[in-house]
Amino acid sequence: MTELPKEQKEFWRWQEYHRVRNDRNWKNKDVITAGVDVGSVGSKAAIMIDGEMYAWAVTRTGSNSPDSAKKVMGMVLEDTDLKQSDIQYTVGTGYGRVNVPMANKAITEIACHAKGANYIWGPSVRTILDVGGQDIKAIHCDETGRVTAFLMNDKCAAGTGRGMEVFADLLQIPIEDIGKVSLSVDEDPPPVSCTCVAFAKTEAIGLLRKGWTKEKVLAAYTRAMAIRMANLVNRVGLEKDFVITGGQSKNIGIVSRIETILGVKTLPSPNWREGGLDPMIAGAAGAALLGKALYLKSKGS
Amino acid sequence: MAITAGIDMGIQTVKVVILKDGAVVGRAKASSGFEPAKAAEQAFAEALQISKSSKEEVTQILATGSGMETAPYANGNVSMMGADAKAGVFLFPSARTIVDIGAEEARAVKCDERGIMQDFVVNERCAAGAGTFIEAMARALEVKLEDMGPLSLKAERASPINASCVIFGESDVVSLIHRQESKPEIARAVFDAMADRISSMVHRLGINLDVVVVGGVAKDVGFVDSLKRKLGIKILVPEYPEYVGALGAALTAASRVKVGQQ
Amino acid sequence: MITHYGYIDGSGEYFIVIDSDKCNGCRKCTEKCPQNALEMVTEFIDLEDKTVAAVSETHRKKIRYTCQECEPERNKTPCVLACQQGAVKCVWKPL
């Protein structure tokens, strides 16, 4: 994946931070594992004690994967009295997974993301739609978090954070407001006919000339994007419970329309500021969980 | 002696051709803008003036192109594929495949020696498969569209561009510039990517020689060069490739007049 | 795991669908593909690494173009026919 220039990188702002659950004592526990998820924009790490979340950290990915992995690993160990050597098994994931120096094994982000979603939202989760800055992933999994079907749409910008950004720029609406603004119309107009971002620009200008308000144009476009994402979800199989992750999960205009089209409510995302788990660490959490299973398997139990 | 006209209501540009006794006597174009019908009237007037004839002398006017329904003065329509086939064989009697690449659509038409369409494939609704892709990449490169081709011909190799989307392609090009890749090599990569897509489309139809490339993108020497390399065959390009649709409509109008007279 | 290789864009849906649970790693599809668009990859399934067929990275974003000559709308492309396990399918829905 191509690195985007810095100013284009962040579709939704997020903070670098680390957290330790001090109510958990790691001493005398059986298995301590870590998951390190080096993504194209963010690097995440999670430490689990016997398969329960103990600490996690989120930071920006730097110019090289090994350094980003070391940095986020250093962050996650901070404020714990754990050392790197206390961790019995580490799994690397994300697009920089093969360059995680401390990893015992690299596993694709899909397997980790599903496993982590299963942990964060619970075993009832069957369908996950992950809408990032540059791609859209749809995952179907079973009650253990094992992936049963997967699809990644990374060819086309329509619906991705980048695509929404181009459209928001065109309408001169601040990116963080587009969800709210798109819902300010009384009734959704028909979706724009062309989902291609490059062509939708032309269509949008035509609609504005016809006297449509910005809000109405945005609603028509957001609706078209939601229909398209719903199609992706249907392709892998929609089943309750359903969650949306990634930057676009914060776009209420997209989320509410997908819910209407599919006729399913998404499970609400926990908020780390209120003591919950962070959906951003799903991949790292899944990696740590798979790490535990692999560790136990290697010990023959 | 009959004078006919063809109006090609393209998404980006409206083209008009005036035909007199089997020869082009006037051609003009105008940017479609938001009032394509007005643009067509303007281009029509200009083409008439060049042809030194009056509107009353034009016996039959046919429209083609994606906006053909909105064409002024038209007595009827011709499909875009039909117009391509007709004009392609008129310009090059040996032509059996006409590849037409416009701003927002690309198509390949298979035809017989009479210029009658036999089969076709279309790429539409994705900007990466049409002229828009090259335009957007030229903007990202900060190179004038018409300079892209000559620039690309200076390159010995192509930079790596993986994106198959205009939007992602723009960021790809920007990061290649940041990495100080040479502009000619980036330009060549843009044309190679485009040629790759067009070549698959032509293969779909089966390559029937001769292959003629028309439409606005055919004016681009860089693209034609990439497509030649990709297909490994000779490619014919007419002198005014962007007027081929309008010419096809004017030719069809002429044959309708002839049929009417018989 | 059923993986959909391909995309939905403005022009339609294009996917090569590979079921790695059914895939036995025989490589026949990779040998039959006239475009060399398929390759063997390592997939992590049930805590094991398994070698299965996949659409190669370079073709994933242009599979519609790559596959055009095989006429995948009939779902009888060389890759689909080569697979005795029924692990490979084509989904081709141009708009």
Verbal overview:
The complex is a heterotrimer of chains A (301), B (262) and C (95). Chain A has nine helices and ten strands. Chain A is an alpha/beta fold. Chain A folds into two domains: 6-122 and 270-298, 2-Layer Sandwich (Nucleotidyltransferase, domain 5); 150-262, Nucleotidyltransferase, domain 5, CATH 3.30.420.40. The two termini of chain A are 39 Å apart. Chain B folds into two domains: 1-84 and 239-262, Nucleotidyltransferase, domain 5, CATH 3.30.420.40; 93-237, 2-Layer Sandwich (Nucleotidyltransferase, domain 5), CATH 3.30.420.40. In chain B, α3 packs parallel to α5. The longest helix of chain B has 23 residues, at 183-205. In chain C, strands 1-2-5 form a three-stranded antiparallel sheet. A two-stranded antiparallel sheet of chain C has the order 3-4. Classes of the chains: A alpha/beta (301), B alpha/beta (262), C alpha+beta (95). The A-B interface holds A 2-5, 8, 134, 155-157, 162-163, 166, 194-199, 202, 206, 209 and B 11, 34, 104, 125-127, 132-133, 136, 162-168, 171-172, 174-175, 178.
Provide the descriptors you would attach to this structure in a database record.
heterotrimer, A: 301 residues, alpha/beta, Nucleotidyltransferase, domain 5, 2 domains, 6-stranded mixed β-sheet, 4-stranded mixed β-sheet, disordered N terminus, B: 262 residues, 5-stranded mixed β-sheet, 43% helix, 23% strand, globular
Largest sheet of chain C: 3 strands, antiparallel
Please state the CA-atom Rg of chain C, rounded to the nearest Å.
13 Å
What is the helix/strand order of chain C? EEHEEHHHE
Would you identify the regions of chain C where 5 or more consecutive residues have pLDDT less than 50?
A: none
Give the SSE layout.
The complex is a heterotrimer of chains A (301), B (262) and C (95).
Chain A: H1 6-9, E1 17-20, E2 32-38, E3 42-49, E4 52-60, H2 65-77, E5 89-93, E6 105-106, H3 109-121, E7 127-131, E8 136-141, E9 147-153, H4 161-171, H5 178-182, H6 197-209, H7 214-236, E10 242-245, H8 252-262, H9 282-298
Parallel strand pairs in A: 2-5, 5-6, 7-10
Antiparallel strand pairs in A: 1-4, 2-3, 3-4, 7-8, 8-9
Helix pairs in contact in A: 3-9, 6-7, 7-8
Chain B: E1 3-9, E2 13-20, E3 23-31, H1 36-51, E4 58-64, E5 76-77, H2 80-91, E6 97-101, E7 105-111, E8 117-124, H3 131-141, H4 145-152, H5 166-178, H6 183-205, E9 211-214, H7 221-231, E10 235-236, H8 244-261
Chain C: E1 2-9, E2 12-19, H1 28-32, E3 38-45, E4 48-55, H2 57-60, H3 63-66, H4 78-82, E5 88-94
Antiparallel strand pairs in C: 1-2, 2-5, 3-4
